[in-house]
Amino acid sequence: PDPSISEDLLAAGRKAYDVDREHVFHSWSAQRTITPMTVVKTEGPYVWDGQGHRLIDFSCQLINTNIGHSHPRVVAAIQEQAADIATINPAHVNAARSEAARLVADLTPGDLDHVFFTNAGADAVEHAVRMARVHTGRPKVLSAYRAYHGGTDLAFALTADPRRNPVDKATAGVAHFMPAYPYRSYFHSTTEEEESERALAHLEQTILLEGPQSIAAVILESVPGTAGIYVPPAGYLQGVRELTRKHGILFIADEVMVGFGRTGEWFAVNHWGVEPDLLTFAKGVNSGYVPLGGVAISCAVYETFAETPYPGGLTYSGHPLACAAAVATLNAMQDEGMVTNAARLGEEIIGPRLREIFEAHPSVGDVRGLGAFWAVELVKNRETKEPMAAYGGSSPEMNELVAECKKLGLLPFQNMNRIHVAPPLNAPDEVVRQGLDILDQALAVTDRYVTG
Ligand code: PMP
After folding, report:
1. CATH number for the domain formed by residue range(s) 72-335
2. Any idea which GO molecular function terms this record carries (predicted)?
3. How far is the CA of 122 from the centre of ligand 1 (A)?
4. Which of 5, 106, 182, 260 is most buried (CB neighbours < 10 A)?
């Protein structure tokens, strides 16, 4: 245990654990089977577990604490705002929301000049789709398989990962298409160029078969996160932009996970110069210190609701505490150059080290990413690409790898057969290097299960 963690803190953590197991209902879990990790302290790029061990946080929790834990400027802004105006009817102007909206409008690409604030990512997606449906007068929305858009009903229907199946009511107006995923190409492509061309041809076929005149929007994660951080091949997002424009369909870029610097650009669409009609955000907008999400809206969509009311609202649309945290976060990110730092971390440290790790470990099938957003995809066999955990679940092998990382001092983000490397954008270089060294060491665990 870290000597800075007192016995009182550890005792409080043990008590919290017992009460949690008695009363807390956990997301995505078979309640009685889980042994969740207790966190007793967070600071910068670190968290401390229930035994008082310090772990490097390569998960940024759910990839939201982009500026690290407990950033003093953001903490102070929340405290000051709480003492001033803690909460207010969203119909009233509040200074924190006005300034947060101005910053978001300035930072987002194109003419996304108006901002509707929500509580988080899923409701941002719900509202973006509603705007698109009213704007176009069309009912359908297309989303990609291997995507994550949120846990509310419509957002979960758009989320084409297998977890939705038990509750999938085939929500009216949702259809799916295959994504561009070079490592496991659905189109039998052997090059990125081929993958981009074939995935676009498939999307156009889907649009034509569903009927362009019935489709309000195509929603896509600019870089799909939860489902694997698979960076789209060159030309793909531009192609989606052209196709949607050609058919009068809106393009919604879901930047809930990648927005605000994660990939080394303020928004991931900027890597490809693409301007969506609607852009959803959450997480990084205020590093998750207070729940906040939103939709950045183009001028054309804004006009639809300029003289006719928008059918929707939220008690906490632009909550002062959340918006004060956003203003402080975005100012700190700009002042401290965190977005360019994320790009540098990817180019100079994470990318090169992960390529070494790929060379050294037969259980690593692929490494890919941008900025401070990388995936290590684990396989039992590099030839067959048999995943170390089946799609939709974990496996004893992956659980063992995560346990080994934690034992060695790293909190990784694991999903299915992947470890995601997503440190804070301002993590010191030596902390990122240490985390990668730990991952390198821990991968001896999965190497033992390689069969080919
Ligand atoms: N969209 C994307 C791309 C996400 O990554 C997430 C959350 N992981 C969501 C939407 C949903 O956000 P929330 O959990 O804040 O509702």
Report:
1. 3.40.640.10
2. transaminase activity
3. 6
4. 260
